[in-house]
Design brief:
alpha/beta; ten-stranded mixed sheet; 14 helices; TIM Barrel; Urease, subunit C, domain 1; 432 residues; four-stranded parallel sheet
Length: 432
């Protein structure tokens, strides 16, 4: 990564705004701003980096609204810098990081720590503050103060906001701040001690399972509270068919609810646990569900019920994952493979066209978090992702930019990747 205020992208196909990907143009960036879009622009002498993007698409920079950067407190898993390197490799110019750190992001000073430690990177980091102090679920955190420090939403992610009265108050406060509450939807009394989806596979393997109803019950509660308070509830990492139905109906009823889905939840099923002989890199929470649930995720993306695609990027050190399945922590890294999985399951199968798929990466996450949406237009700040949909590449361990390697896709041949990002005056080219 280097500071690259002046850049000429040649022979690129923009997608978004007035562009549909069919037109090939040159784009000049001066001092970090798109200054000219045209045909066969002449390179400027001395002070301009030239990059031939023949065959590649260009969109507004992608955003992942649900990642775990682990810093502060768990730097052995990931740091802000390594997490942002993984984000850049995956095509993301902005991420929103969850607060289950140590200390948690429950005060303005922790919010500002994260902002300060990311300010010189190519990837913008937006902290998500805690709903409750210390993430203990007992009393409301200082929401207004955290917003003033740069927080973009509130969540106790890693744990649900279990107390209904606390959630009511949180929705009331956050609505005054015009910010969403992002809840990890899980009824703990129904889910624990589950280690995978409760169903035929868990019964066959003899492993305690987490039933879909544990997620659905909490979503139903939160929808009712959002309706009662007028607040904005965002359902994190949705995973069951019934959960999608609940959100679909709530939207039809005019309730302020949005949701996101992870690529592994519209790609893999609980059968992977048996097929991969209890590989802990297919252990996550919510767990991998059934084919019926996977199909429902895809249908929800197609009809707009599911607003955004996120990764729930959850790095763990190798010694934490190399244990018996029931003892391994939940979670996988996902920033670097999200686009390829989306291409496979959504674009190549004609579930979504390119513009609609990109909206799940570019526009929808920022709409939910009330952030500015980058556009490809003269006079605008350059926040861009350069990508393709047809290049085959191997997700080898040597290509992983994250500090951790816990991915079920390691060693697989994928198709479609982010070739580079441009943001904050920095041009990051992804080498494989």
């Amino acid at each position: 990564m280097s500071y690259t205020p002046n850049l000429l992208l040649q022979n690129v196909r923009p997608v978004g705004g007035d562009f549909d990907g069919s037109e090939t143009v040159d784009i000049r960036i001066e001092d970090g701003t798109i200054s000219k879009i045209g045909d066969a622009l002449n390179p400027q002498k001395d002070n301009e980096t030239i990059f031939d993007a023949s065959g590649s698409y260009l969109s507004g920079g992608w955003m992942d609204m649900h990642v775990h950067l682990r810093e502060p407190g768990y730097e052995h898993k990931e740091t802000i810098e390594t997490g942002c390197a993984a984000a850049a490799f995956g095509g993301f110019t902005e991420v929103a990081c969850m607060p289950n750190t140590n200390p948690p992001i429950h005060t303005r000073d922790v919010v500002e720590f994260i902002k300060k430690n990311s300010e010189k990177l190519a990837v913008d980091v937006h902290p998500i503050g805690c709903v409750s102090k210390e993430r203990e679920g007992k009393s409301i955190a200082e929401m207004g103060d955290m917003k003033a420090g740069g927080a973009v939403a509130f969540s106790d992610d890693g744990d649900p906001v279990y107390n209904s009265q606390l959630m009511r108050v949180a929705l009331e406060y956050s609505s005054m701040l015009e910010m969403p509450i992002i809840n990890h939807e899980e009824d703990l009394k129904l889910s624990r001690p589950g280690h995978m989806h409760e169903g035929k596979v868990s019964a066959r393997l003899g492993i305690d399972g987490t039933p879909g109803i544990a997620e659905e019950t909490m979503i139903a509660r939160d929808i009712l509270l959002a309706e009662f308070t007028g607040g904005h509830i965002h359902v994190a990492h949705i995973s069951t068919a019934k959960a999608v139905d609940l959100v679909r109906q709530a939207k039809a009823d005019g309730i302020n609810v949005t949701t996101e889905v992870c690529p592994h939840h519209f790609d893999l099923t609980d059968e992977e646990i048996e097929r991969r002989d209890f590989d802990t890199n297919v252990k996550m929470h919510p767990p991998l569900r059934t084919q019926e649930d996977v199909d429902a995720m895809i249908e929800g993306l197609a009809d707009g019920t599911i607003d955004a695609i996120c990764t729930d990027h959850a790095p763990h050190a190798i010694e934490e994952k190399e244990v018996e399945f029931i003892y391994a922590p939940n979670g996988i890294i996902g920033l670097e493979t999200a686009w390829a999985i989306s291409v496979k399951r959504l674009l190549d199968s004609d579930v979504l066209d390119l513009q609609t798929l990109l909206a799940k990466f570019v526009e929808k996450p920022r709409e939910i978090l009330n952030l500015e949406i980058p556009i490809i237009q003269e006079g605008t700040e350059a926040n861009l992702t350069l990508f393709n949909v047809d290049e085959e590449w191997v997700f080898a361990e040597s290509t992983v930019q994250s500090k951790s390697k816990n991915s079920p896709y390691l060693g697989e041949t994928l198709k479609g990747r982010a070739e580079a990002i441009y943001n904050n005056g920095r041009f990051v080219i992804n080498e494989i």
